[in-house]
Each structure stands twice: as C-alpha cells, then as structure tokens.
Target: Kinesin motor domain-containing protein
Amino acid sequence: MIKETQQTIITDPDTAVEKSFTFDFSYDSFSPPGDPKHASQDIVWDDLGIKVEASMMEIYNEKVKDLFNPSSDNLKVRDHPSQGPYADGLTRSAVSSYDEITALMDAGIMARTTASTNMNATSSRAHTIFQIILTQSQVDPTTAKMMDKVSRINLIDLAGSERAASTGATGARLKEGAAINQSLSALGNCISALADNANGKKKTLVPYRNSKL
Model:
C-alpha cells in the first residue's frame, strides 16, 4: 500500500568532482549501486493497482525544461493544494519495468544541457531532477468513493557551484555559472529556514519563491 509521501535524494558535488561516483546522470559512466537506476529496481512491480510514472526535467538559467520533450523549455512552476509544487505541463510517462525507467532516463540524459569548462569537459549547466510517481487508486471506506494516493521519489543532481576564476567561464558559461550559484544559495536559505522552524526557533519565512529550484 502507498503512503502519501515525497522522498528526495540530493547530491551536490563540486563542479570538478566525477559525478558517476555520487549520483549517476552520466550517460556512459559506471553505474554504482547508489544511483537512480538502481533505486528504481527497488520498486515492487506487482499487481496492487499501482500506476508508476516517470518525469525528468532540468532547471537551466531559472527555466524549467522537460527532458522527455526538450522543446518545452520554459515550464511554469505551480503549487498543488495537496501534492505540493510541480512543473505545469511536464511529461509523465507510464512505466511498467526497471528497463523502461532506464530507457527513459538515458533519453533524458541525452537532452541535458552540458558544456566544456576548464574544470570539466562535460560540465552540467543545469540542475537535473528525475521523478518516479506512484499512484494507487482505492475505495475510501468512509465515503465509498474512489480516491488516489500519490507518492513521489525525487532524485536530484545539482550542478556544482562554480568560481569563474577556476572554470575560465566567459559569456554564456559565466551567465550559467552565476545562475547555478544563485539557485544553490536560494536552496541553502530554504533548508536553513526549515531547520530553524523545525528546531523551534523564531518562525522564519521559507523563501521558496527565490528560485525555481
């Protein structure tokens, strides 16, 4: 049975770190047991009426791009009253096996935005998010109506923070690096505010709207 939760795994390596050993979104790299492809093997592919879907997006220069439909490169982020934030119009592809998930992931990886810098020949220029959505339909015993329980697994590969002096970035690469650093800073501020609130400190507004990330 599905519990209505959202689980998130985030990696944030330095831009020069080989990401295949932290969180594998590298197309031809070695695929260690901790990567998202192996995580998808843990899904129980059974007959409990659970629908499994996958989505993949990147956040590039504060624009959300659908990696299953790369022509959709400026999706709006909206807030669902019960399921939380989502990218409006993001492709959700039904899957029924581990192999189908890996095939979709490989296709999405090929559509990512990468470029060469002094620190990394195939540097990620965007944050990448792979989602696995589990939906189970069942009858609510109190109302006798059908209801959906939805859980999400978010697998997130953050682009590494950059120093222009080290990467040698200019022009478009410099703009990308600034956007990466700004969004990482915004994420850090959100996590800090959430921690303060959880620890019972003075109530702090969580600045979610400061970045698409």
Observations:
- Strands lie at 6-11, 50-60, 63-66, 77-80, 84-87, 93-95, 114-115, 123-124, 127-139, 146-157.
- The chain is about 25% helix and 30% strand.
